[in-house]
Design goal:
This protein is mainly alpha-helical. Among the domains are: 13-84; 99-275, no CATH class. The protein is built from 15 helices and 8 strands. Strand 6 and strand 7 (203-208) form a beta hairpin. Helix 7 packs antiparallel against helix 8, helix 7 crosses helix 9 and helix 14 runs antiparallel to helix 15 (361-384). The longest helix is centred in the middle third of the chain and has 28 residues, at 160-187. The protein is globular, with a radius of gyration of 25 Å.
Amino acid sequence: MTPDLIPILSKEITFNPINKNDYFIHQTVYDHRVRISQDLYCFLQLIDNQKSLEIIILEYNTKYDSIVTYDFAYDFLYQKLAKFGIIESPDIQIKPDLKPAYLKLSFIVISEKTASKLTKYLKFLFLPRILISVLIISVITLAFSFYFFNNQIMHSSMAKSEWLFLFLLSFIGVTFHEFGHASAANYYGARHGGIGGGFYLFMPVYFADVTDIWKLPKKERIIVNMAGMYFEIIYVVFLIVLGLIFNYQTLIILACIFSISILHSLNPFARSDGYWILSDALEKPNLMFHGFLRIKHIFKSKTNWQKMDYFLLVYGLICICFIVFFLYFVVIKNPDSILYFPQNIKKFAANLFASNSHFSLAELGKLFIPLLFFYLVFGLLKKLIPKKI
């Protein structure tokens, strides 16, 4: 650290407000996004690539009646921001763009270039009049479908071929779901990346890279987050209309069953659309982290807590309750799903290739629920066992 050190702020960055108290810096070349407070934002605004760090600190402390130290400023600029390419430094290696930690084994299926060729034609669906009209028609279509086919939807069992057909329809539907997010981002002028896949809680998931929507206003971010479900509803109505035209009742029933799964996206306690909608509505990035953080501080002084802190505490407790209930359901109520997991896989595989075989949601649950349990146990052990070991 030298007294005459002159910080150089990269030209390839933009500052975007998250809420009244926070900003994020976007390094456009390396595609890094770093969240900072309003105070640190004001500090960075004093950097003109000519003044020394000592003079910047003096100006900031005088202007804002603060006591920022040289060590703190140096650490903030060169230990935190430089590794993301926000502060230029030839001695510090810039980190590569990393995928979210909760997403495992991620990969791109449809490149940004290919996806953009389609999203530019789909974004018209977000014109206000078209969006409202489509939603009204969709609600009416779904209401009549469930009214006339309620018994077949809720109580019929499906053969193997119908399950495979449902999986195929679902795969197309979730792909269209991600095009919804990307198209909405395109409509509002935010850049979208490619569409890919990965694993979250051992479950295969699809995702569209729409990280750039953080530069949009809150209302537009929420619409982008809801756009996937909007596109899935359009897809369901399209299948129902096809079923009516060709008098194919099975297609109508499968479309309605798929529409029920759309409600899962509203879950705010997993990293689904509902989570991001709530996060944007509260203007609180990394909502789950903050909820668990409030639980850790539950027995500490709450003199500086605000309404948001108590809400985050309740949110974190509900997340914990879901985990506890899941463990109770698996270990206490259904221990056979864990004890006989290898046998259940063998039985499922044998049934898969048998002729005239039938599947139920309960059978599939016997496979997926233990996987979720083993994932939680593995994650817990990973935290408890020292890293050195």
